[in-house]
Amino acid sequence: MSYWIGTLCFVAVQIIVTLCINLFSKRSSKGLPHILAITSVVQCWFMWTIVYLAHKNPLVQPAGGH
Amino acid sequence: MARLFDLGLSNVELWRSEEMQLVQLMVPAESAHDTIGALGDVGLLQFKDLNAEKSAFQRTYANQVKRSDEMARKIRFFHDQVEKAGLALGIRPLPDKVYDMDELEAKLEELEAEMLEVNGNSERLMRSYSELVELQLVLEKAGSFFDQARMDAQSENLDRSYSVPEDMGAPLLESALPVSGGQVENKAGRLGFVAGLISQDKINGFERLLFRATRGNMFLRRSAVGSVKDPATGELVEKMVFVVFYAGERARQKILKICEAYGANRYPFPEDPSRQRQMHGEVTTRLRELHHTIETGDRHREGVLQQIAFNLDAWAGQVRREKAIYHTLNKLSMDTSKKVLVAEAWVPVGAKPRVVEALRQSAEASSTRVSTVLQPLVTGDQPPTYYRTDNFTYSFQAIVEAYGVARYREVNPAVYTIATFPFLFAVMFGDFGHGLLMLAFAVYLVANERKLLRQQLDEIFGMLFGGRYVILLMSIFSIFTGIIYNEFFSIPMSLFGRSAARCVIDGVPRQEVTDLRSCPELGGTVSFVRGAPPYPFGVDPVWHGTKAELPFLNSMKMKMSILLGVVHMNLGIMMSLYNNNYFKDRLSTLCEFVPQVIFLNALFGYLCIAIVYKWITGATTDLYHVMIYMFLAPGTVDEAGHLFSGQAALQVVLLLVAFVAVPWMLLPKPLILKKRHEATLRARSAYDSVDDEESRGLVAHGASTSAGHGGGHGHGDHFDFGEVSIEGHSGLDRHVNGINTFAMEIDSDIAVGRIEVHVRGLKSSQPERFAGKKRVSIVGAQVRFKKPVAAADLCIGQEMFSELTVPVWLSEALLTLAAKTLSSTTRVSARSEPRYFMNPVLAACQLINVARPGEEPGMWEAAEDARLMLPGAAGAGGAPLGADERRKWCDVPANIAGAVFSPDYVYTFHCWQHYVNLSSYELAIGPLRVDCAPVMHRSPMQITVKDVGTGAYAFSVMLWHERALYGARAGAGGIDAGKAAALGRLVNGVRGLLSRS
Q1: Closest CA of chain A from B503, distance in Å
Q2: Where is the Domain of unknown function at the cortex domain (chain B) (predicted)?
């Protein structure tokens, strides 16, 4: 469940970034900033997902002590 | 609302390269320089080199480029001088006075001369200064030798009776003893000395050589003086003052030579101590003066250099600009009138208005009557790739282009690279703290962008500055990945609450144990609770420092790399789909894109899914095992490789699909492309053969009559110009009538009558004319002349109007060869205009019949009879000479010197030959076949009868060959490489033949 909440956070970030670009960017064509924003958010989400999933059922435990 | 979420993806900058257009510029020569300069300021044109075949020295503006080079050299010289003097270069955008190029050249010339003179003077002064310094040293040191010797001698003199002199320096002979200074010379007689300086490392060799040369009959005193500036080289050298004493003139000569060889500087040294003192004083005074002079010179030099340094940068810029302009001008082609330069350049369509504006301004500024004309050109060439980048995108584009430049209008990978490149860096770098430091540096660079842009940065810093936006994005992503890796300067953070791991004691997770490090002491183990949510963001801090940290993180990062890599590869393949759709290349989509996607995802996509599946389910399956046995034992899944049910079947399918994808990816596309190419070739050759079949007939085609005879060509699908068509004309402007057959009426300036042209192999010719004969073309003519024509001048043969594409000697050789087949008297000119090769009709024609009007025979019934015209050419008993005898007789110029073709008679000629096949344009010499079409180079073969004396034509029949008409098809503009090679071989053959005959 918390995975989807995390994902929603990234979606929210994407929405905010999109709005920011459309509201504040003065470029005549905003396609490039949008593509960059989407690509960045997607790859950040992807990396977060990977690490999150890797922690879901770790096969080794930190038990061994410090 | 819609506007707020509009992603604007329909118009993404950089997505594809700018649309380009090839334009032609016609620049008036007088304003060409300024125009190109103005276009250079715009910087949006890529000029095509229209003189690619010319070397750098053959180009129009080679001289100006050389001049610019020379000026650049001078500026480099000044640069060195300024740098040596330790002066700062003025960084001024504009010099205090703007010189034009000629003035600047003169100015540089003048400054260089001044500089050289100043340098020369100061060098001379420095030299004499060093010499004086050395002289002074010699005076001091050698003086002290003498003083010492004198003192030793005096004391020796006192107790000479009871002691043997030990000091080698003490004089041995009594007579040599200087009683007082100045008398040495008188008493010692031939004893002389040489004083000077020599560098310290040479002194031993010097002394040894002196010793040997004089057989020990010398004496050397020396004394180190430390580092002295060498007058010759200006370098500091460790030196020694020496004085060599010797006896005799021969020894002196030897010593002088040795001094020279060892580079020892000799100095005059008076023996008289008072003169020594005097000289010392003089030298000191002069040294002082010289020092003063040198200082003044240096000040002057510095002044000159200061002035130069002030403007040097601006001048260097101006010269560079000038050189660039002339370089560009060299790419332009000059039209024959030398009034207009023609340029071809690629320009982005979007930038055309700016170019036009620049042209307009430069035209106004140069106030020429004619302005530059810019017009688009249609071309099949691949346009260059040009991206309009800005400060931000520039460095990313540069990174992509380091790997390769996309073709024109292909999708630009840089768009995604801007985000993915820094991200991949961050995946490797990931540390919150380091990321912050990097961010601070990047922000500094970006914030001071304007200031730094104006400065001259050193290499490393310049590179960092160039990549400032790359660094900025890298640092931002590094901060993100740092949080994911949970590392702040390698120390874990707890930004997102406490670890998800718990201290499990006796199988019960204890929530209350907050400090997990104390867990082992409590008798529990730290472990994750199954089913509990993991750490919400990034790597759980509990891993830090545990023994399991490395295995866990390594496994995770390895898998992450695979996932990221496969996603990137898929993205790359998707980009190729964009390209295929854009270029409407369905073949590549079906035979490249689809199998690529299948292959990649059937193997590696499956691996990725297996990784994620394993994470989600917590299966202990070994994924290496899965992948390896997927290939080794398809269809079976053992215990260690079991992930899910139906796995075996799925793997077999995936494997099969992947195997099918490989030949699918590799084979069909090249095969289909080959087939398409062959189809095009076939279509072309079919087109060519249609030409051949349709037109293998004699199509007489008079330029003036073609319209009238258009219907007369008969069948509808007839190609207009046949393989061979005959065009007859008499006189160059008046054409004969009715030439749709071999027979033509002629009416020219000098002749009126009828001619017939028969060419073997043409339908329109009468085949019986060639039956049983070798001849390939026959010309018959029956004419009356309108005025007397000198017999020696009336010639038959070939003229050439086209430009020569082969060397003159070759064309001359070929002409001569061809003419020889007609007669041995040949009039060949490869150098006149038009060039021609011709033979006197009398010597060339195989039959001549001269008859009174009304008595003339039929054209083909005529028998050889030239008696009316050539009374001398009668055989025994007044019978007409045979044709061969007549030709031989006429071959002697004296025999036909006075003869004329008179208007009073009717002349019938027959002329045939068996060398040049007019229907195929082949020259046949024995077994050798030469294609004449390339040699003729778009001009027709002719049967021309002409008065070469006056240039008037009797008649001229032009036999056009299709290939002569359509030069373009056989390689536009002349002979293509293959033919040229064939021709080269032929030339040797022809020359061989000529020399044998």
Answers
A1: 9
A2: 736-961
Residues B858 and B961 occupy one common structural domain: yes
Q: Provide the number of structural domains found in chain A.
A: 1
Residues B806 and B885 in one domain: yes
Stretch B146-156: mean pLDDT: 78
Which residue segment(s) compose the domain that A31 sits in?
Answer: 3-56
Chain A residue numbers with beta carbons less than 8 Å from the beta carbon of B5 are 15, 18-19, 22
Cα diameter, chain A: 58
- ipTM of the prediction: 0.96
| B853 and B957 inside one domain | yes
Show Cβ contacts of residue B557 under 8 Å, excluding neighbours closer than 6 positions. Answer: none
Report the distance separating Cα B471 and Cα B44, nearest Å: 29
The answer as to whether B836 is a domain residue is: yes
pLDDT digits (tens, 9 = 90+) for B336-373: 777 888 889 999 988 888 888 888 888 888 777 777 88
Q: How many domains does chain B have?
A: 4
Helix (H, G, I), strand (E, B) or coil at B434: helix
User: Which member of B534, B543, B618 has the closest CB to residue A62?
Assistant: B543
Element (H, E) at B454: helix B449-454
Domain containing residue B631:
551-675
> Domain for residue A61, yes or no?
no
Contact B43, B294 (CB under 8 A): no
The residues, any chain, with a CB within 8 Å of residue B301's CB and separated by 6 or more, are: B85, B118, B119, B122
Residue A64 maps to a domain? no
**Are A60 and B612 in contact (CB < 8 Å)?**
no
Q: What is the number of CB-based contacts under 8 A between chain A and chain B?
A: 150
The reply to whether B465 and B578 lie within a common domain is: no
Whether B532 and chain A come into contact, CB under 8 Å, resolves to: no
Q: Report the amino acid identity of residue A42.
A: V
Q: Does B534 touch chain A if contact means CB atoms closer than 8 Å?
A: yes
Asked if residues B269 and B195 have their Cβ atoms less than 8 Å apart, the reply is yes
Is residue B648 within a helix (H) or strand (E), and if so which, with residue range? Answer: helix B647-666
pTM assigned to the model:
0.59
Which pLDDT score, from 0 to 100, does residue B574 have?
94
Question: Does residue B693 lie within any of the structural domains?
Answer: no
Express each pLDDT in A24-58 by its tens digit: 888 778 889 999 999 999 999 999 999 999 998 88
CA distances from B935 to A24, B160, B570, B985 (A): 72, 111, 58, 14
Which residues make Cβ contacts (< 8 Å) with residue B336, sequence separation at least 6? Answer: none
DSSP-assigned states of every residue in B546-610 = STTHHHHHHHHHHHHHHHHHHHHHHHHHHHHHHHHHHTT-HHHIIIIIHHHHHHHIIIIIHHHHH
Structure tokens at B902: 């008179």
